[in-house]
Predict the 3D structure of the following.
Amino acid sequence: MKPEDRRQAIMDVLMEAGTASVEDLSLRFGVSKMTVHRDLDDLEQAGLLRKVHGGASIQSSPQFESDFRYREKIATAEKRLIAEHAASLIEPGQSILIDDSSTTGAIAECIRDIRPLTVITNNLGVITSLSGTAGINVIALGGQYSKKFNGFFGIVTDEALRSLRVDIAFLSSSAIEGTTAFHQDQEVVQAKRLMVKAAKRKYLLVDHDKFGRSALHFLTGLDAFDAVLTGAEVAAEHAAPLEEAGIRLVRVGNSKTSEKA
């Protein structure tokens, strides 16, 4: 097996399991542990995984965000419910921004019948899903493509966002600590901040597991959003700081939706 094929196969293993040991990878691919270490070093250098003691992981940490393909498999039912509620906030004729996240990306399948509608996004999955849909005008934000995030970022993206004004922005973030949102990647943070500035109304969509986490870069205080949408499973200890700060928290569940401010 060629080195590039083996490294792709290592990523496939991690996409399924989240973590893998050097010993397991060595046995699986029939190569030495030293060869596996070199493969992991190259993949880590490319920002695709993080090395941990005895192996590698693509699970999130304060300094590392997971590949979008792995994040898409996590909390799918909860993200779908959150996306459906977010779609109910949209009216025909509006313009909306959708960021690169897997949580907001789920909105695409929920808005096909809300027409006419203008959707502006740097999320390649959303662009692909909605392009060619009758009645939906898709504006793709240019920039440098990130395979890890499956989206576009950088100077071109930022300049486009500075020139736009929209009705609603839907964003997500990888970590919420208290009443503050954080993210691991500075280019992602910059794009999200500009999306907040571009919108009249803004909503943060996060599954309940994002609470109680921190990450390297400060994104914004949660008071920047008209509401925070999450799953009904969010723990009381994580909801309390938002409620005390007067931040509107909407819990979305299978049977009912509740909110507190």
Q: What stands out?
A: The two ends are 57 Å apart (CA to CA). The first strand starts at residue 19 and ends at 21. The mean pLDDT is 95.
